[in-house]
């Protein structure tokens, strides 16, 4: 595996993006595995707080920002519990990483590990790191239930209709097991500034007002996501009634409500899948 050698140091930067969790996180696992010093990093990228290309609609409103701040706060706490911390910066990831390399006097063998994305802005970030930071860039795939390398067809031949996709993969393509981290992560480089979490005011976004009628009263973060998984499956058995309640509109329990956590990577699709398999074995089967 590639490593970063600067004198006696081997350093890796784990750039969190849409994978804000500890469990089943190949990016964090790989970065931690191959280096002596680990920098878990999250960048509040300014482009996420600009207007959309068409019509200038805000990309990040108060509720989304609140969920994101919850998720980052929770991720930092979980990293601390593993003997590490989360380095937080405001700025473009490619520039932040370049600044870290300069500040810490890291060499060209520095390793940056990140989860691969397919959307335009995120791809540009990846290309910017590769072009401007003079590092070894390692990408992982962790957003989907089925791993890209396990599909029985090339991505360009992906069926346009979900039913066709399901027919090709269901019961034919194995779901990979979740990746487990060690109980303790590699230490941060000495003297590295961790950085404070930003506030709503930093982005000119008002704090959200929670409506008591909301069907999503949950905070962001891995801890909240795992608690929701436990509640929906084991504490209430709501998952066994999903087919009957999934088209409801009132209250928090007519559906899983996993979507925001999945979108931010606070919980992995494989974690949900294997927990469902365990539930079906111990309680009852489900569609």
What can you tell me about this protein's structure?
The protein is an alpha/beta fold and 287 residues long. The chain has one domain (5-143, 208-282): Rossmann fold. Helices cover 34% and strands 11% of the residues. Residues 1-6 have low confidence and may be disordered. Its cofactor is FAD.
Offer a concise description of the structure.
Residues 10-145 form the Photolyase/cryptochrome alpha/beta domain. Helix content is 34%, strand content 11%. β5, α4 and β6 form a beta-alpha-beta unit.
Give a topology summary:
Layout: E1 5-6, E2 9-16, H1 26-34, E3 37-44, H2 62-81, E4 87-90, H3 93-103, E5 111-115, H4 120-132, E6 136-140, H5 162-169, H6 222-235, H7 242-245, H8 259-264, H9 269-282
Parallel strand pairs: 2-3, 2-5, 3-4, 5-6
Antiparallel strand pairs: 1-2
Helix pairs in contact: 3-4
Mean pLDDT: 93
Give the class-level CATH name.
Alpha Beta
Structural class: alpha/beta
Order of helices and strands: EEHEHEHEHEHHHHH
- The parts where pLDDT drops under 50 for at least 5 residues are 1-6
Rounded to the nearest angstrom, the radius of gyration is: 20 Å
Oligomeric state as shown: single chain
Q: How many separate helices?
A: 9
Protein name: Photolyase/cryptochrome alpha/beta domain-containing protein
GO molecular function: damaged DNA binding; deoxyribodipyrimidine photo-lyase activity; FAD binding
GO biological process, one term: photoreactive repair
Family: Belongs to the DNA photolyase class-1 family.
